[in-house]
């Protein structure tokens, strides 16, 4: 397994070992002790999967006051995956990093608490997986605008299939610091 630091402290790109032969391939998507050796060691309490079509943009989502860390990957297709630092007082506040995750390289992205997360599907369809450190709570659910000009994410496609929550999400600057992770 290879762990790479990204442009945002705490966000890590993980390339698992893939064992392939004429039958196909095998990889571990999570083993607590191996990931803990690289600083990815939370307890995951919820697993999610979504399926989306080309151009669908989901995000930028976060929870507060019960934030979630997320380990994410794609089992089918290809996505543009984004993490945004939304911790007031962080020197990286409002900065983003992005990676293409796909079913060929099998990379994962670790997004710790304190970051908003979103992705856009680049293939005809994509199946996206999340391991979360806290359960989803509707009363903690929050989003920031996917097209916030102060953040300036360069999404690769014109978005399709936005949820009403994502279409109406406020800009980061419109949220009070009390509504953002400490």
The count of β-strands is 13
Mean pLDDT: 94
Task: Tell me the count of domains.
Answer: 1
Major β-sheet profile = 6 strands, antiparallel
Structural class: mainly beta
Q: How big a fraction of the residues is strand?
A: 35-45%
Question: What gap, in angstroms, lies between the N and C termini?
Answer: 31 Å
CATH topology: Jelly Rolls
In terms of per-residue confidence, which ranges show pLDDT below 50 for 5 or more consecutive residues?
A: none
Helicity level: under 10%
SSE topology string: EEEEHEEEEEEEEEH
Bulk shape:
globular
What does this 3D model show about the protein?
The protein is mostly beta strands and 182 residues long. The chain has one domain (2-171): Jelly Rolls (Sandwich). The protein is built from two helices and 13 strands, in the order ββββαβββββββββα. The chain has a six-stranded antiparallel β-sheet with strand order 1-2-10-7-12-5, with no helix packed on it. A five-stranded antiparallel β-sheet has the order 9-8-11-6-13, with no helix packed on it. It has a two-stranded antiparallel ribbon with strand order 3-4. The model has no long low-confidence stretch (mean pLDDT 94).
């Amino acid at each position: 397994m290879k762990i790479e630091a990204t442009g945002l402290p705490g966000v890590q790109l993980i390339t698992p070992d893939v064992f392939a032969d004429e039958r196909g391939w095998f990889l571990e998507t999570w083993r607590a002790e191996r990931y803990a050796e690289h600083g990815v060691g939370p307890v995951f309490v919820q697993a999610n999967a979504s399926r989306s079509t080309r151009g669908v943009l989901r995000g930028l989502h976060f929870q507060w006051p019960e934030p979630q860390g997320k380990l994410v990957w794609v089992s089918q297709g290809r996505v543009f995956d984004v993490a945004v630092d939304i911790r007031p007082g962080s020197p990286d506040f409002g900065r983003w990093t992005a990676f293409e995750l796909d079913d060929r390289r099998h990379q994962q992205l670790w997004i710790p608490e304190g970051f908003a997360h979103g992705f856009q599907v680049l293939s005809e369809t994509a199946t996206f997986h999340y391991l979360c450190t806290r359960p989803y709570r509707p009363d903690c659910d929050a989003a920031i605008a996917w097209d916030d000009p102060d953040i300036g994410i360069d999404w690769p496609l014109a978005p399709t299939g936005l949820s009403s929550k994502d279409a109406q999400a406020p800009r980061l600057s419109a949220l009070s610091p009390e509504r953002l992770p400490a």
